[in-house]
Amino acid sequence: MLRLKNKSFASQIMFTVSAILLIPILVMTYDIFFSGAKDEMLLKTKEERLGTMVNATVQSLTEVLDRSNLEYNSLLSKKDINTIANAFDIIAKPLSDGNPGVRLGLYIPETNDLFVYGFLHQYRPQTPEEIKAREYRILDEASSGLVAVNATKEPLSRIAGSQGNQAFEYLMPVMQQGKLIAIAWADEQVHPVFAQSRQFSLITRYMTLLGLIFGLGTALYVIHNLAAEVQVIKNGILSMQEDSEKRLPAMPGEIGEVVQAINNMADNLKEKERLEEELRRSERLVALGRLVTGVAHELRNPLAIVKATVQVMEGEFKTQQGLREYTKVICDQVDRGNLVIKELLDFGRPCKPIVSPTELNHLLESVLIFTFPMLRQNKIELEKKFEPNLPLVNIDMDRMKQVFVNLIINAIQAMEGGGKLIIESIVKEETIEVIFTDSGTGIEPNDLSRVFDPFYTTRDDGAGLGLSISYQIIHMHMGRIWVLETSAEGTTMAVSIPKSNLLTI
């Protein structure tokens, strides 16, 4: 059993099918080699017994014919027929009386005369009319055998009659000087049980053979289908190892239930990995936020001192030639630093949200009013696919505007030289989704897992906080933001907001 478990799936199936088919094979083998041999032995015994009686009859008739003066070159006369009939009576009567159930017959083809002694079965004495009808019936039953012996001049043994009333016949020609004078035969009824047994054996043999052929064909068909389905599952699992988005195709029956269970397990694992990644990201963001807040506070004070010092210098040394040019550069860099510090503070310590029922389509329209000039300046075509009558959601309008602006700006930066931006709003069962699709250069596969990490950017002039802050805001709204699709032809970003969201601070 252990060895069988270690075999392949196809080998186990083949072993099982072979074990199942072994029983009909043994039955058929027994029928062929034992049951058939027994039937042949019984028939051989009958053939020898009847053949001995017929041989004795033919030899006696031949001796009588040798002593008579028959003209073999001419038709038999009535006298000749009487001579043959009297000789048959003398020979057949004691044989028939000594072997109840055996019938002896003599047929003269030239005159179509028939002589019969003995009964296969007799229940009462018969009238002359019944005896005549019996002779006609016997002649009709033996006609095919008589014709065969008349044609071949050779002895013949066979089973004749209808199902349930069969008899074993032994026929032999009576020859004189190369001429067929008569045909002698003996027949004995075959027991109905024996006849039925032979018929059953024949039917069993054919049914078993058909069963084996059908079973083998069915087994091969089932094994082929199972092996093909197992191969599909195997290839599907291997492809799932390379790409977690792939799933096994649907299949019927129990195999289909296994496939569905595997797909569900893959979905659960993917969801578990996503939740674990979000948890890790949240923990990193919390720790980073604390660090960033402290650093931002420490940087803001020196920058404030620098800016105040520059302003004093501008007042005291305003007559100094060229000083204004340098102080302007310093003030611009200080303002830029303050802007970065503000972003750091927003990231590290988000302010308390101000929640109000909001229709997202109106919010998107308001965002597009002040971002449309940027789109037109960068030669970007805008296409809006807003689903009408969106349900209201409780969100912080200003913070959500910040998310949408960040996504639009990222799309613009990805489409240098122009392109197309599609913004869609879709209502689903539990959420409302806003989807941004650009025709830019896409995101590199290695960068997908890092797009929401703080300070990660592919641009030289970016702080890398836009998507991180957007992620925090959406997470605050109990929603989700993710890269739906990306390729060399563009990127699709999706934002999902629950219809009945509960905001966290």
TrEMBL record:
Cellular location(s): Membrane
GO MF term (any one): ATP binding
Coiled coil: 258-285
Reactions that this protein is recorded to catalyse: ATP + protein L-histidine = ADP + protein N-phospho-L-histidine
Domain Histidine kinase: 294-501
Database matches in InterPro entries: HAMP_dom, HATPase_C_sf, HATPase_dom, His_kinase_dom, HisK_dim/P_dom, HisK_dim/P_sf, Sig_transdc_His_kin-like_C
Domain of life: Bacteria
Enzyme Commission identifier(s): 2.7.13.3
Annotated signal sequence range: none
Principal place of residence: membrane
Residue intervals of the HAMP domain: 252-274
Membrane-spanning parts: 12-34, 206-224
Keyword list, A-Z: ATP-binding, Coiled coil, Kinase, Membrane, Nucleotide-binding, Phosphoprotein, Transferase, Transmembrane, Transmembrane helix, Two-component regulatory system
Major enzyme class: transferase
PANTHER family cross-referenced by the UniProt entry: PEROXIDE STRESS-ACTIVATED HISTIDINE KINASE MAK3 (PTHR43065:SF10), SENSOR HISTIDINE KINASE (PTHR43065)
Name the UniProt record assigns to this protein: histidine kinase
